[in-house]
Amino acid sequence: MLGWEIFAHSVRMVFGNFRQVLQIALGPAVIATAVIVGLFLLLGIPLESFDDTANASPENLGSITVFTFLVVVVVFIVMFWIAVSWHRFILLEEYPSGLLPTFRFDRILAYLGRFVLLGLLMAIGFIPVGLILSVLGESAGLIAVVISFGAALVLVVCFYRLSIILPAAAIGNPITLGDAWNRTSGVAGAIVVLLVVSFVFQILVQFALAALAIIPVLGVLLTVFFGSLILPMINVSILTTMYGIFVEKRELT
């Protein structure tokens, strides 16, 4: 089954190149953490401002708003820095050297632009569904749930079919949305299987981490390690694998 093969290959890709995963992801993650802490201290935000029961002053509210915006910017830049570096490592064999992967601003910007484009397309695609749900009203009940789930599934499948434009942008070999759609023709079923397998895998990992959470320190470290590093890298690897199969016609090994 193609969906399972894509997922299994993506997992092997991460654990088989574990050293490169650490080289590509750890440095940017540390930098992001340091920048966020620095912004927090620079803006002088009191810790009690994040207490739900506390009433933030207008000054603190403004600082929190700026802080939140900057954190989102930092997180997205670092996230796409890691993703671009991983795509280039796998597809171009561009090995990371030193403590940090190469920061390719042009590729990161291209990646961001295409990610935003996909998000806008998905939002536009959901507009007709939203209109239907608004006409049906709250009385629709189960019908509304079924429609929402079906529409979400279709949109996610479409997103994955088009998402090969992301690794294409990362390696400097851009393809159009139409080309991406044509190259992934007939694989909707495989993508559904891929989504199901990925969902089950992440649920199992979360259960395992919850069980390990009872172990002091080690449980927390494992939760952070898998939740913020391994699982996201597997998701990025899925896009890398899909590009390799559907664009470069690579064989899964």
Give the helix/strand class.
mainly alpha
Determine the mean pLDDT. 87
Oligomeric state as shown: single chain
Largest sheet composition:
none
Work out the strand percent: under 5%
Helix content: over 70%
Q: Termini distance?
A: 14 Å
**How many distinct helices?**
9
Gross morphology? globular
Task: Tell how many strands the DSSP assignment holds.
Answer: 0
Low-pLDDT sequence parts:
none
Structure description:
The protein is an all-alpha fold and 253 residues long. Helix content is 77%, strand content 0%. It contains 9 helices and no strands. Helix 4 packs antiparallel against helix 5. The model has no long low-confidence stretch (mean pLDDT 87).
How are the SSEs ordered, and which strands pair?
Blueprint: H1 2-16, H2 18-42, H3 58-92, H4 105-136, H5 142-162, H6 165-170, H7 177-183, H8 188-212, H9 218-246
Helix pairs in contact: 1-8, 1-9, 2-3, 3-4, 3-9, 4-5, 8-9
